[in-house]
Amino acid sequence: MARHFNALVAQPFLIAFTLATAVLGLLLRDIEERLSTERALADTAARLRAISRAIPDVLLVLDSEGRYVEVLSRDEGTLIARASDLVGRRLHEVLPPEQADGFMDLIRETLRSGRTHSIEYEMQTRSGRNHFEGRVQALGTLVNGLPAVVFLARDITERKQAEGALRESELRFRSVLLNIPSIAVLGYRAGGVLSYWNRAAERLYGYTAEEAMGRRLPDLIAPSALRGLMGADIDRMFATGRVIAARETRLRRKDGAPVDVFSSHAFVELPGQPPEMFCFDVDISDRKAAEEEARHLAFYDALTGLPNRRLLVERLQQALAEGSRAGLITAVFFLDLDDFKTLNDTRGHEVGDQLLRQVAGRLRGSVRERDTVARLSGDAFVVVVPGLSAGAQAAADQARALGELLLARLREPCDLAGHEYHFSASIGVALLDRAAESVDEALKQADMAMYRAKDAGRDTLRFFDPDMQQAVTRRATLEADLRAGLRQEQFLLLYQPQVDGEGRITGAEALVRWQHPEHGLVPPSEFIPMAEESGLILPLGNWVMETALRQQARWREDPVLGRLDLSINVSPRQFRQDDFVARILALLRDTGADPARIKLELTESLLLHSVDSAIETMRALRAHGLGFSLDDFGTGYSSLNYLKRLPLSQIKIDQSFVCGVLRDPSDAAIARSIIALADSLGLDVLAEGVETEAHRRFLLEHGCQAFQGFLFGRPMPLEALERQVRQGR
Which residues does the UniProt record annotate as the domain EAL (predicted)? Predict the structure, then answer.
C-alpha cells in the first residue's frame, strides 16, 4: 500500500509540489523585480519632477502627432494654459494654425534627422506675451507607440527687452553721434584706418563719409608736418590702450585750409571685436580767432596797426638787454605831430585818423625790419632803433641821420579826403647804452627832448641831455610842493597900488605869491604855468578870488578904503569852467563884496577859444556890476573885431611897451595908439610897469590917466597898502 500510495499519490505530489514551488519562486522573483522597477521609476519620476522644478525652462514631451504627453514647468505663467489642461491635447488645438504648423515641421525634422534643433519664438502665455528660446531633441523611445521629442523652452523675455533697449540706446547714440552739430566724431582702427565719420566731421573737414571711410586719418586731415607725429600717436595708443591727452591742434580741411580743433580720444575694445579708437574734434577756429584778435588788440593799436605801449615796453626792454650784452647803443625816437589838434578841430577826427595812418605807414617804411615803430597815444609815436654803434658820437650821428630822414618823409604832402595837406613833426631822441635804464626813464628822456624840439620852433630834432632831466625833476618836485602848499595854506596875496594922474591911489591889483617853507617866495612865472598845466590853478584861483573878495568887503566898511577898486586876475582855465558865473555870484553874496569895485583881469589868450562864449560869460557878470580889464593888451591876438564886442571897462598897456616908449619909436607909437583906441571905444586905459617919472609924464601927456608900477609901489602886504592909502599917498 505504501508502495502503491507512493507510486500513485506521493510521487506525483512531490513532483507537482516541486514544480509549483519553482513556478512560485519565479513568480515571486518577477513580482519583486517589478516592484523594484516601479520603485526605480517612481524615484526617477520624482527626480525628474524635482529637476524640472529646479530648472527655469518649460519641459514638454510631444509625440509625432503633436500631442502633449508631458508638461513640466516651475511657473505655469509661462504656459499657454494649465499643464493638466494641455496633456493629451494637440498643438493645433491650443496654438494659432501658423504657429502650430511651424512646430509640427520642427518636430518632424527633428525625428527625421535625429539632430537637436533650436528656435526662437514669441507666444501668448498666461502671464502675457513672452519670448522663448526652444531646443528640440528626439526622445529615443516610443510613447504610446509613437515617436516623441523632448522640447525645452526658456523664457527670454527680459533678455529680449534688454536687447531691445540696448538696440534703442545704440540707435539713439549712433543718431546723436551722427547728427551732433558741433562735435566731429571720427572712428578708426589700428593703423588709423577710418571706420566712422559723422556729419559734423563732414562739415568740419569737407570730406563725405564715403570719401573718408577706409582711408588713413593722418593722410586725410593732418598737415604734412604733423602726419608722422599723428601716425606715431595712433600706433602708440593701440599698442598701449592709453589715449593721448586732450589738446588743441591745427589740422587741415579738404581744401587745404587750416582749422583749429580741440581733440580728445576714447578707446573702445569689445569682446570678439577689433579695438577701435574714437576721436572727438571740436572746432575752435572762432575762439582762436577771437583770442588772436584780443591778443592783437592787447598789443597793437587798432587805428594804425602799430605796436601799442604794452608791446613797445616789451620790445624796448629786449632791445636794451641785447644792446647791453653786445655793447651797442639803442636810440629811442619820440615823435609828436605839430598842430595836429588844429587839424582835428578844423577837419574832423576822421581826417585826423587818415593822417595818423599815413604817418604810421611812412615811419614803417623808413626804418629796418628789426626796428619797432609804435603809437604811444594820440599823435605821439615812438621808434626804437637798436644796434647803433658803441661810440656815443657815432651813434648820435646815426640817430641824427635817421631823424632827419623821418622829418623829411613827414614833410612830404599827403592827400586827406581829396585835399593836399602839409604837416611836420617834432622829434626827441634818447641814446641808451645800459640795460639798467628803465623803459619809463627812456621814454621820459625822449619825451623831454621832443618838447625841447617843440620849444625850438618845431619841425626839428633834439637830443636829451642831463640838464633837461634836472629841470623836469625840479618841476615835478615843485608840483608836489604846490599841492602841499594848497593844503597847508602857504599862499598869500600882495597888493600893488594903482594910481591916477595926480598920483593918488585909486585901487590895487591882488597878486598871489607862494611862501615856500624852504625856497622862500617862489616867482609867479614859475608856479602859475605849472598850476595851469596840472589843473591846480582851479583851487588856487578859487582861493585868490574868495580871499580878495573878502578883503574888498572889509574895505567897504571903511570910509577911506571903501573907495578903492580891486583888480583880480582870472586864469583862462578858471574862466572857462561851466559854473564860473554861479561861483562868482555866490562868492559875492557870501562875502558881501561890492561888485562895482571889482575888476576881473583877463588875458588875450583867453579869447583865442570861443569868443562868443567868453562874451556871454562877461555879460552875465557885467549885469551884476562887475567890471573887466584886458591885461597885457597888444602882446597877444589883438583884434578890433572882438575888442569892440567885449563888454570891457579897461585896457592895460603891457609893460613891455611902457618900458620902451622913451627909446623905441615903435613902442611909443604902440602906446599912443592903444591910448587913442581906448579913448575912441570909451574904455579906461592903465599903463603897467611904470618905473620912472619920465615914463609917467610921457604917458600922461598922451592921455593915459591911470598907472601901475614900481614908481608907485611894489607888490606889498595888505597892511602896507592900507597904511599908504591912509597917508594920502
Answer: 475-729
Query: Cell 579695438 appears where?
Result: 275
How many other C-beta atoms are found inside a 10 Å radius of the C-beta of residue 450?
25
DSSP labels for 542-559? HHHHHHHHHHHHHHHTST
- Alpha carbons 587 and 594: distance in angstroms, whole number: 11
Is residue 670 packed enough to be buried (19+ CB in 10 Å), middle (13-18) or exposed (0-12)?
buried
**Under a CB-based contact definition with an 8 Å cutoff, are residues 618 and 647 in contact?**
yes
Residue from 124, 140, 117, 167 nearest 61 by CA: 140
User: How far is C-alpha 367 from the geometric centre of its chain's CA atoms?
Assistant: 32
Cβ proximity of 144 and 157 under 8 Å: no
The set of long-range contacts for 443-449, using a CB threshold of 8 Å and a minimum separation of 24, is 443/316, 443/332, 443/334, 443/376, 443/382, 444/472, 445/332, 445/469, 446/332, 446/333, 446/334, 446/382, 447/334, 448/472, 449/334
* C-alpha torsion 321→324→330→332, nearest 10: 50
Distances in Å between the Cα of 200 and the Cα atoms of 208, 284, 593 are: 10, 13, 84
pLDDT at 326: 84
Could you report the per-residue pLDDT of 64-95, keeping only the tens digit for each?
898 999 888 878 878 888 888 888 899 999 89
The amino acid at 485: G
CB 507 within 8 A of CB 566: yes
Does this model's pTM top 0.85? My answer is: no
Q: Which residues pair with 63 in a beta bridge?
A: 148
The C-alpha atoms of residue 639 and residue 646 are separated, in whole angstroms, by 11
CA distance 365 to 329: 22
pLDDT at 52: 60
The residue type of 408 is: A
Contact 435, 321 (CB under 8 A): yes
C-alpha distances (whole Å) from 339 to each of 268, 299, 443, 446, 463 are: 72, 28, 22, 19, 21
Helix (H, G, I), strand (E, B) or coil at 366: coil
Ranges 113-117, 178-182, 289-293: which has the least confidence: 178-182
Q: Within 10 Å of residue 223's Cβ, how many Cβ atoms?
A: 14
CA dihedral of 79, 81, 84, 85, whole degrees rounded to 10:
-150
Rg from Cα positions in the chain: 58
Residue 144 φ then ψ, to 5°: 55, 35
| Residue 583 CB neighbour total at 10 angstroms | 15
- Residues 6 or more apart in contact with residue 35 via CB below 8 angstroms: none
447 half-sphere exposure, CB direction, 13 A CA radius: 11
**Angle formed at CA 539 by CA 538 and CA 545, multiple of 5 degrees:** 90
234, 188 contact by CB (below 8 A)? yes
The candidate with the shortest Cα–Cα distance to 64, out of 164, 141, 121, is 141
332, 443 contact by CB (below 8 A): yes
Question: How far is the C-alpha of 409 from the C-alpha of 411, rounded, in Å?
Answer: 5
Three-state SS letters, 121-171: EEEEECCEEEEEEEEEEEEEEEECCEEEEEEEEEECHHHHHHHHHHHHHHH
Residue 641: all three cell numbers together: 573885431
CA 436, 441, 443, 444: dihedral to nearest 10 degrees?
-160
What's the gap between Cα 191 and its chain centre? 42
SS3 659: coil
Those residues whose C-beta lies under 8 Å from the C-beta of residue 380, and which sit 6 or more positions away, are 334, 335, 336
Structural contact between residues 501 and 705, judged by C-beta atoms closer than 8 angstroms: yes
Cα–Cα distance measured from residue 700 to residue 687, given in angstroms and rounded to the nearest whole number = 10
pLDDT tens per residue across span 436-452: 467 888 888 899 899 98
Count of other CB atoms within 10 angstroms of residue 4: 8
d(CA 371, CA 399): 13
CA proximity to 539, closest of 571, 585, 563: 571
What does the alpha-carbon distance between residue 664 and residue 668 come to, in Å, rounded to a whole number? 6
